[in-house]
UniProtKB/TrEMBL annotation:
Keywords assigned: Ligase
Higher taxonomy: Bacteria, Bacillati, Bacillota, Clostridia, Eubacteriales
Keyword Ligase: yes
Keyword hit for Flavoprotein: no
Name this protein carries in UniProt: Glutamine synthetase
Domain GS catalytic: 1-70
Family statement drawn from the similarity comment of this UniProt entry: Belongs to the glutamine synthetase family.
Matches recorded under Pfam families: Gln-synt_C (PF00120)
Gene3D superfamilies reported in the protein's UniProt record: Glutamine synthetase/guanido kinase, catalytic domain (3.30.590.10)
EC annotation from Swiss-Prot or TrEMBL: 6.3.1.2
Amino acid sequence: LYKLPPEKQAQIKSLPRSLDEALDALEKDYEFLLPGGVFPRRLIEIWIEKKRRETRKVNEIPHPMEFELYYDL
């Protein structure tokens, strides 16, 4: 991979690097989950909303390493 020419590297799709990025991707393309009615559209929308609330909560709380690095009192 690292030795590929830049034009070939640009053709390789990357995976989301965070839950937020994964939710963005799912929000843009979840039609593949709808056939057969296993995952109704509303269920997917509710699940995305729930996960977004969870990520906001997590992002509001400092990581223990942040305390170690920046909160020396």
